[in-house]
Amino acid sequence: MHLGVCYYPEQWPQHQWESDARRMAELGISRVRIGEFAWSRMEPEAGRYEWAWLDRAIEVLATHGLKVILGTPTATPPRWLVDLHPEILPVNKDGITLNFGSRRHYDISSEIYREHCARIVTQMVRRYGTHPAVIAWQTDNELACHDTAPSYTEAARRRFGGWLAARYGEVERLNAAWGNVFWSMEYRSFAEIGLPNRTPTDANPSHWLDFRRFMSSEVASFHGLQGELIREHAPGRDLLHNFMGFFTSFDHYEFAESGLDVAAWDSYPLPRTEVLWFDDADKHRWARTGHPDIPAFNHDLYRGVGKGRMWVMEQQVGPVNWAPYNPVPKAGMARLWTWEAFAHGAELVSYFRWRQAPFAQEQMHSGINAPDDKLTAGGHEIAQVARELASFDPTFDPAATAQVTQARVAMLFDYPADWIVQIQRHGADFDYQRLVFEWYSCLREMGVDVDLLPATADLSGYRLVVAPSLPVVPDALVAQIQAGQAHWLFGPRTGSKTADFTIPATLPPGPLQAVLNVRVSQSESLRPSLRPAATFDGVRGEGRSWRDHVEPGPGVDVTAVFDDGVPAVVQAGRVRMTTACFDPALQRAVLERCVRDAGIEVLTLPEGGRLRRLGNLRFALNYGDTAWRVPAPEGARFVLGGRETGPSDVAAWIEMH
Amino acid sequence: MHLGVCYYPEQWPQHQWESDARRMAELGISRVRIGEFAWSRMEPEAGRYEWAWLDRAIEVLATHGLKVILGTPTATPPRWLVDLHPEILPVNKDGITLNFGSRRHYDISSEIYREHCARIVTQMVRRYGTHPAVIAWQTDNELACHDTAPSYTEAARRRFGGWLAARYGEVERLNAAWGNVFWSMEYRSFAEIGLPNRTPTDANPSHWLDFRRFMSSEVASFHGLQGELIREHAPGRDLLHNFMGFFTSFDHYEFAESGLDVAAWDSYPLPRTEVLWFDDADKHRWARTGHPDIPAFNHDLYRGVGKGRMWVMEQQVGPVNWAPYNPVPKAGMARLWTWEAFAHGAELVSYFRWRQAPFAQEQMHSGINAPDDKLTAGGHEIAQVARELASFDPTFDPAATAQVTQARVAMLFDYPADWIVQIQRHGADFDYQRLVFEWYSCLREMGVDVDLLPATADLSGYRLVVAPSLPVVPDALVAQIQAGQAHWLFGPRTGSKTADFTIPATLPPGPLQAVLNVRVSQSESLRPSLRPAATFDGVRGEGRSWRDHVEPGPGVDVTAVFDDGVPAVVQAGRVRMTTACFDPALQRAVLERCVRDAGIEVLTLPEGGRLRRLGNLRFALNYGDTAWRVPAPEGARFVLGGRETGPSDVAAWIEMH
Amino acid sequence: MHLGVCYYPEQWPQHQWESDARRMAELGISRVRIGEFAWSRMEPEAGRYEWAWLDRAIEVLATHGLKVILGTPTATPPRWLVDLHPEILPVNKDGITLNFGSRRHYDISSEIYREHCARIVTQMVRRYGTHPAVIAWQTDNELACHDTAPSYTEAARRRFGGWLAARYGEVERLNAAWGNVFWSMEYRSFAEIGLPNRTPTDANPSHWLDFRRFMSSEVASFHGLQGELIREHAPGRDLLHNFMGFFTSFDHYEFAESGLDVAAWDSYPLPRTEVLWFDDADKHRWARTGHPDIPAFNHDLYRGVGKGRMWVMEQQVGPVNWAPYNPVPKAGMARLWTWEAFAHGAELVSYFRWRQAPFAQEQMHSGINAPDDKLTAGGHEIAQVARELASFDPTFDPAATAQVTQARVAMLFDYPADWIVQIQRHGADFDYQRLVFEWYSCLREMGVDVDLLPATADLSGYRLVVAPSLPVVPDALVAQIQAGQAHWLFGPRTGSKTADFTIPATLPPGPLQAVLNVRVSQSESLRPSLRPAATFDGVRGEGRSWRDHVEPGPGVDVTAVFDDGVPAVVQAGRVRMTTACFDPALQRAVLERCVRDAGIEVLTLPEGGRLRRLGNLRFALNYGDTAWRVPAPEGARFVLGGRETGPSDVAAWIEMH
Q: What angle do helix axes C171-178 and C205-233 make, rounded to 10 degrees?
């Protein structure tokens, strides 16, 4: 449980570095991320490197016992590089070439740019790879941010052709897989294949899906290229990237395979609440706290991406600058978010940023210190967390928390599922991430901990596995269902596609029919006003947005039916499926049934109340407006707070289980 | 009354063709449309033709007694053709060149592309033009779909200049007609004239109108070029095109003059209801049936375009893929839509498509068969229609229905009116088609049959002619008013423009002043909250969206006045005019008065109930939710259904009139 | 108090000019603006000038005693010029080159175009500069209209680089001022600097602000170039430009420094009400009158721009063509708007236009005469105004009105403030002009007259100065506060930025801290649902949209607090600040307190009632729906109307003060 901070020494006069470092250490911070975005200072002109300032910056930090996470500056190629190679600039979906003047102004598929990235990273790792204070390396920054992946350049087109050739071998196989006989889209060679943008009407969804896969691999290989150099020259150091929550333009699980020790992510609960799919009432309700499940969802997701190792690389401290509306967080939230992260297994919570910059694009983004160097309200809360960490109850076993407990419930998160839905939304309001998040939130409101995992994971340790939607069902997953004893719940659109983006020959749910013998004769998307009603376990609710009309085969029970006769929930032994998106009450009824059947306790928490186990600890976090008497057992020993947990407050007790 | 189907043999293994053809015939289908979109199979490389597969496909169909409608594949130029001539790609209004990868990726003004179209069509008609099974030819597919007309290419600009030179002779005449002295827009030669897109503010509306006229003629000549080749090599075969309902980017009446035997159209009631102007309550009300007047309106419109001969080339059978929301149709609708088409004089109802494709862009578009070859719910309904057709009551005289009865009411539909309104909407919510549709719907709700016709038609047989809006009033129309005995009703904006898109010298309604002596001193568009009230025949209602302030001259009666004193309805003998768009109640009051004055019976039908005469038959079609006791005379002989017509059901009886 | 009209002789047959001029004179018109837009008639081909028609047009007008305002035609370069130099076409923010075919199709930064403008203007002024009938010259037309400034051409980029070099001298100074170390945005030379558009995410706000400043100076120098020629060749004539109300893409005060005798503006109250920020209820309420403060606000603003001399160059007479909805004005409004202008010191009210053109883009824009040459409803009202002017009560001293009375309240209007907010809105609904307008409206509803002035003006004569928001506080303003005795009220975001677009070192309100010792520790934007409540002077109200969290220092009183403890109003002696945008009631409470403290009378006017002093006259203007008993003193002598002022009517009396 470390505290960290994002710091940009190049943005401040050198005489200030010393006091900055001292004050960081005094505050309880032990990790400092620096370096990303500083290319123009590392290499002011082509081939002329200047390291003295960075040498000294690291030295000053190290002197105060601070450990450094060094970022590669490849998110911000300098002007001279753009002028030298204008072809590295990105091209957007409409075919417009973007300009220098902000960040991420590069084409991730540019081989020229990749060479320059390899060059600057090589220089960095040769100089600092074995520096004792430099304990970790971050590549680039928030890859794909600002819609920079997919990229629509000629370089992307060329490499896409190569990727397709490698995937399909012969173009006839591609034509068959994509169904290119449709609309005379047949190709005679891989070189003929263009990008799927700017077509008069929809391009072939198979074309899109392969392009999305290709672009995902481009992001991974862009990171991997730097990762290899870092591994080679900085042995023993952690390799990481700082992901953005809710970004799905590349498959993070695939990315992790390209070389990753820790999945770090950037946590901005307030702006994220403002920009996501929530309705206005929810956006208002959580405007100053953020939705209670936004941080948790990403902690659980990225812990899976990092195979257990997760950091928060940038944690919101106060008001930020990038949402349509940017309120001041409620008092206590910087502390609450920090403990929430630790409760979900974060090894490090690092704040963005040490001091608010009074200039440039992020001048309205607050930090631990105001531009006049006074600690901010959030800064004071961090000082409190540091004190709490320093004086953590000695009866609590820190070693136990180092090992994150595996939850009893796994939820499958599938990046290609999101691509598939984006490519063929079919119903304008169908949102894969929203559906996943709503199921997740439903489980968290019952006090249930959840691990988010890919459909390819080993799920043998779980009592219940839920998949809110899984368009492509891997055969291996069916084998896991058959082999294990877990309960399973699948949502709508499951098994609706093959890996080629076609409809399975036996119709959906395709391979899942081996364990749930139903045939989806037709599917429909529902306008918001169309809400067929159904009852499950006595709870009346509505289907929304999507409905699969299933015909149950032998051995399948229909356990809920819509008023018009279409099955709502079907079941074959341990495997259930819901045929539509449900309203929260009906969704909860089904999930609650599954949780109980799996032998897991169901609690009823107050609005905004959340629980989380970590080792032998259980945390209670109160995002609500009223005090909460937390469900600790009689006589539980509290290591943080007490039984009455006020608004924006947190408690933790040792649980004997 | 034939049933047909759209079929794509190239998309399925050849061994399946035989069973497909057999099952079609068994189902009662007698017509099969094939071939459109298959260019890459007909000519896999430049100049290398492959016809064997198509020979065989036609043969298999013919063996089962099926007749073939052969489509030209020009909606989908193959990749090799695009690579050979990239300049055939279309350019959109923003100046962006579109890509290969879907369909309609061609510039309709490209002379190079027209040559290639002529070439492939020539090859086809030489081979199949006199094949006994091939009874009809369709050119291209849904011309102008996906906003591909107008086209904004350099080729379009060049040809537009030529078109203008032919129209005006001398550029000074064009300058005068367009009023180019305004804003120094004067041209010194036709070659100087560009396209009207991408101007800093509105281009000259006269410039736009001529461009729209030109583009309309481009669409017609593109079809005509193919039509001529078909006429030459396929003597005696029907020449057709499959239009899309509610597409007005070209003048269908002008198109028909370029060579057309049958006006075929593609009927998708559900997605059309979702994307048209209806408010949310109406979209919900008709989400699973489609608005009751959408099919009828187009049947009546295209019957006029085809001078009496009308087919439904593609009829929705089940859920489709292209609206924001795509629900499953209510049980019975595939049958109901079919009978509605026949009731309006369709010679053929052809379904889209034989079997849902599990791949490519339209994989979520259902058909008669699911991808696993099982008949869909809609497929079963079609089987029922086929049985009903086969056993039609022998006392009914089929010959009588072959001749569509001329209605007593004509409604004028004017494509240039829609262009004029689009070019100069003036009020953001003024929609010409919506206004026409609302008047049409109003008449249909009274049980009145309507023929839709151009303003240039011979209208001498009608008792009542209504024109919801007719900005340019032809002199010949005024002559028809004066010569005949019909009643006439004109709506707002009538006579507001000359053919050059200028205001008539005597102000609106221009030439109509000869029969209705009023002067529109000023016109206004009304924000939705501004709704002046008026009363007609005791019915209180509101004006909306637009109002012409008319000053009545001698001989003109003001039969309704808005509360602020502006005339709402004016009348001179048999000619009436409404000065604003009215709400449904007030609109009905005025139309009902006109219908009664014309000696036509007015009925009050239940919500969703519709009637239609065909020869000596009268059909009752129930789009509503409750059973309907249809207004058949005592002792009427029912040839379909009975006096009680349930939801989504249909009845027909022999009417002695 | 002159009446004028906009006239386009080139658009009408010459035989009509004589009667037009005669009827103008008869109507009471004495000024006629002509010439702008007529380039293609002045110079039909490169270098071939045709002046005979214009000679004659001026002659005809002069013969009838009419004085001419001659416009330069540079808003409409002819086709031949565009073909000769296609590089003069503008490029929009997305990088798309715009086309010929409307107006303003030129790049304001094009040096080639500037040469051609100088050439045509030189020709004009040499010919007509000393013509006795030509009393004034207008440059171009509504500069920057249709989003034509900023311009995003290569020429703009080149000149911007030069402008930056002149401003900063050395690129290092620019890098430091902009904070370009952030995101490696550092430049090595001015030539490297591009335009700030089309970046993947926000460009540096300092980059944008300098670009906006540069573009503002481009607009000014474009005018100045013509102005110099006019000054040289047309000595003694008024030099003017016709501005559009609410256009802020250039700094009008800076513009005036480039040479301006009169600030003329174009007044279209109805469409402006429809397109501005008003909610639907207000748009409906004022749909036929225009919001009562729209004309007044601009009169007061442009009177300041013109240093006391203000004209209405184009006054709406009837319905126009360019808003989403274009209703007919309420009877009386053309007259009311005219008197409102005179009451605010307009020397001339000139109507757009003499006769509605039946052709081209503005054919739906009404005028004094309909296209059939009959006087319109608005035309009749103008005739009434002319009669009233002619018979103005002789006891009224016209000389007194020639001198506009300085108001007691000054409001600061700051063009860069609007740029700053646009560049970094931070809260999606924060609108600088809206905030200013709401404060202005609040004052006008109390019967208070207001002068709008720049922050650099000499404010010594005012009792109260209000600045709804002033992000950059000039040091000289602080000196004025300290030196004078006036009361001051500042709104949110005041002092939030330095001139370089950075946060002041001591945090906001920066320099204002010298007179109001507070520190804005953090600022927040508030979604519409977040509305913290506060009470001031017993009035309960809400903060909206924005809130500065201020920490009051010694000597500062907190006179209102939000319920959550954040100060709402702070005060130090004569200086007050509101920390948020307030709802109208709370805003009025604070302004009313300031007005009373400044010793100014506060009235309560009925809805739509407005007062205005001019010399020894006081006008009452009734935009409301009911008669108003105006607050004239007992025995006041009315020179217009009487004590009961009906809807859309006006009264004026001699006030002894």
A: 120
ipTM: 0.97
Q: In this complex, do C318 and B202 lie within 8 Å of one another by their Cβ atoms?
A: no
Please report the pLDDT score of residue B477 as a whole number. 98
The CA-based angle B174-B175-B180, given to 5 degrees, is: 140
Q: What is the CATH number of domain C409-597?
A: 3.40.50.880
pLDDT in tens, B367-420: 999 999 999 999 999 999 999 999 876 555 555 555 677 999 999 999 999 999
Per-residue pLDDT at B403: 64
The three state secondary structure string of A147-213 is: HCCCCCCHHHHHHHHHHHHHHHCCHHHHHHHHCCCHHHCCCCCHHHCCCCCCCCCCCCHHHHHHHHH
Amino acid symbol at B285: R
Does domain C609-654 fall into CATH 1.20.1250.20?
Answer: no
Q: Which two tokens stand for residue A34?
A: 């620096």
Q: Is C18 a catalytic residue?
A: no
Question: A293: closest CA among A83, A91, A446, A508?
Answer: A446
**The two three-digit tokens of residue B612, written as one number:** 């239609």
A517: its two tokens: 């013998």
Contact A100 C506 (CB under 8 A): no
Q: How far apart are the first and last CA of chain B?
A: 23
Name the residue of chain B whose CA is nearest to A423's CA. B361
Rounded Cα distance, C231 and A412, in Å: 77
Counted across chains A and C, CB pairs separated by less than 8 A come out at: 176
Q: Is the pLDDT of residue A396 over 70?
A: no
Distance between CA B83 and CA B90 in Å, rounded? 14
A interface test, pick of B94, B249, B325 with most A CB neighbours within 10 Å: B325
Token digits of residue C252 = 């009008």
pLDDT > 70? residue A401:
no
Residue A648 neighbours by CB distance under 10 Å: 23
Token digits of residue A142: 């928030």
User: What residues of chain C lie within 8 A of the CB of B549, using their CB?
Assistant: 328
CB neighbour list of residue B315: distance below 8 Å, 6 or more residues apart: B267, B334, B337, B338, B341, B349, B350, B351, B352
Q: Count how many residues are written for chain C.
A: 657
CB burial class (10 A; 0-12, 13-18, 19+) of residue C387?
A: exposed
A142 is catalytic: yes
CA–CA dist C438, C54 (Å, integer): 45
Give the residue ranges of the annotated binding site of B for substrate.
103, 141, 322
**Eight-class DSSP state of B370:** -
Which residue in C314, C340, C445, C592 is the catalytic one? C314
Residue ranges of domains in chain C: 2-146+217-393, 409-597, 609-654
- Those residues of chain B that have pLDDT short of 50 are none
User: What is the least distance, in Å, from the CA of C547 to any CA of chain A?
Assistant: 9
How far out from the chain centre does Cα C32 lie?
A: 22
Neighbouring subunits of B (3+ Cβ pairs under 8 A): A, C
Contact A364 C207 (CB under 8 A): no
Residues of A in contact with C191 (CB under 8 A): none
Question: What is each CA distance from A265 to A33, A465, A646, B160, in whole angstroms?
Answer: 13, 25, 28, 57
Q: Would you say domain C2-146+217-393 falls under CATH 2.40.240.10? A: no
Q: How far apart are CA C251 and CA C454, in angstroms?
A: 10
Q: Which strand (E) or helix (H) includes residue C128?
A: helix C111-128
What does the pLDDT look like over C355-401, one tens digit per residue? 999 999 999 999 999 999 999 999 999 999 999 999 876 555 555 55
CATH code, A2-148+223-392: 3.20.20.80
CA–CA gap between residue A494 and residue A469 (Å, rounded): 5
